[in-house]
Amino acid sequence: MPDGQDLIPKGLRAEALSIRRGRVDISVAPVARSAQCPVCGRPSRRGHSSYSRKIADLPWHGAPVVFRAQVRRFFCDEPSCERGIFCERLPEVAAHARKTDRLETALLAIVTELGGRAGARLAFELGLLLGRDALLSRAKCAAPADAGKVRVLGVDDFAFRRGARYGTILVDLERHRVADLLPERSQESLVVWLGRHPGVETAARDRSNIYREALAKGAPTRRKSPTAGTCCTTSRWCWKSYCYRKVPRCARRPHRRQRPKTGATTPSVRGPSCRTVPGTTTAR
Q1: Which site in 44, 118, 162, 273 is 20 to 30 Å from 225, CA atoms measured?
Q2: Tens digit of pLDDT for each residue in 223-262?
Q3: How do strand 152-161 and strand 165-172 relate by DSSP bridges?
Q4: Which of 172, 217, 160 is nearest to 190 (CA)?
């Protein structure tokens, strides 16, 4: 069972706690007496001033938590350093950030799995007051996840713009997820990628000569399988799921009008000027 100090980020100590209107405010202060300059790295104890900073953290039982830290400014004693005054860096908090690293990690995991709308609803139930636009911005700015070791690789092409520009999608067929996206459909880019990932043992591709020759150059000892239908179907499914997770608006498909069935007759509607007078014939 963790004690109260384990709930505070390491390197900070709690000085006061108050609960107001369903929100937990905790006054914290750095434990270290000195700080390192972010430019030259020299430690300094000569203080300049301080200012207050509010940092959001993971909620406690659905109640938002806010750290109120008193951040200090120091003089840099290095004569050659270009920064004479610097602010100390708080542990587990990025520079100029208003949220802790563990809160940012939790928000990124929510938006990656659920998207914008569903992620915002779950965040509200957990006590995280954040809109869908803020969640989606984190997904767009997040660094791509490391593909790790890919043993069974699927290679196929996709269109940035049909008939104009094409790229290459690489799928990890064991994990059923996108391993990487190449900006062009060429042998050179695929050979370079295979050189950076020597763990590929089996490769499935379509029947294009570009990928056949690229796999022969970049992975001559690997097992190649020209399974066009399986590779295309798998890469298409992985590509759609990847787009739906990263950009949820891609899942909103436009409504298609239903076409009349073949052989069905549609009733002709004639206006008042098309009425026939008895005893006359209508010109066809």
Answers
A1: 162
A2: 655 554 444 444 555 555 555 555 555 545 544 555 555 5
A3: antiparallel
A4: 217
Tell me the C-alpha distance between 35 and 48, whole Å: 12
Helix (H, G, I), strand (E, B) or coil at 35: strand
Angle of helix 132-141 relative to helix 228-246, nearest 10 degrees?
130
Coil, strand or helix: which one is 125?
helix
The domain locations on the chain are: 8-93, 100-143, 152-245
CATH of domain 152-245: 3.30.420.10
Between CA 98 and CA 93 the distance in angstroms is 8
Contacts with 117 (C-beta within 8 Å, 6 or more apart), sequence order = 132, 248
Encoding tokens for residue 148?
């790790």
Tokens representing 90 are: 């708080």
Query: pTM for this one?
Result: 0.53
| Residues 130/104, Cβ–Cβ less than 8 Å | no
Q: Rounded to an integer, what distance in angstroms lies between the CA atom of residue 122 and that of residue 131?
A: 11
The tokens for 227 are 């399974």
Token pair for residue 115?
């998207």
